[in-house]
Design brief:
Structural class: alpha/beta
CATH class of one domain: Alpha Beta
CATH topology of one domain: Rossmann fold
Shape: globular
CATH superfamily of one domain: 5'-nuclease
Strand order of the largest sheet: 4-3-1-7-8-9
Number of strands: 10
Radius of gyration: 19 Å
Length: 188
């Protein structure tokens, strides 16, 4: 794909946080480095808005994550996790992401969707054909819909450089783990 990216382009980034989180966890047992994802998505262009669609839980354990996103200049849109009778859980932001993208598209030259979800193919086609914007996807290629890859103007595969786009917990991070030797002699 040959796509033009230049500094005067206005770009919006729309992050399907659950999709990236689960892809990183399932493929690499790691967490996403959203700072690096944003750098690659914006690519030196004029960022108009970055939105991350996230789920809140009753425990509120995700608040530090939301703070980290805010420090990167990413606005968060939250939705409560739905738990149905029998234990089934639902946490879906696809419609919200699509609506926001369509609302902001008239002010953008390029839309970057951070998701590999094939449900976004109709959105991609609508944005290209009716709104005249360039549509790019940045996500993990190994868990991306082939139809989505085919539909977009540019596809950025985070699997091409996982060390850059992932954060791994160190093996010594576990509270019950013994510390690795430092190689220094102790003074006695």
């Amino acid at each position: 794909m040959s796509v033009i990216k230049h500094p005067s382009q206005r770009v919006g980034v729309f992050i399907d946080t659950q999709n990236l989180y689960h892809s990183a966890k399932n493929l690499y047992n790691a967490r996403v480095n959203f700072g690096e994802v944003m750098k690659e998505a914006v690519a030196g262009r004029g960022l108009v808005r970055a939105l991350a669609y996230v789920i809140t839980t009753e425990s509120g354990e995700e608040s530090a994550f939301f703070d980290a996103l805010a420090k990167l200049g990413i606005e968060t849109k939250t939705k409560d996790l739905q738990i149905f009778y029998g234990g089934a859980k639902k946490a879906d932001w696809d419609v919200g992401l699509a609506v926001d993208t369509i609302k902001l598209a008239p002010r953008l030259d390029a839309v970057v969707i951070a998701s590999g979800d094939g449900d976004f193919v109709p959105l991609v086609k609508f944005l290209q054909e009716n709104m005249g914007v360039q549509v790019e996807v940045i996500t993990f290629g190994r868990s991306t819909s082939s139809k989505l890859r085919e539909a977009v103007d540019d596809f950025i595969d985070l699997c091409d450089d996982p060390e850059r786009f992932l954060m791994r917990s160190s093996p010594n991070h576990r509270p019950d783990a013994k510390r690795a030797p430092t190689g220094r002699k102790r003074k006695e």
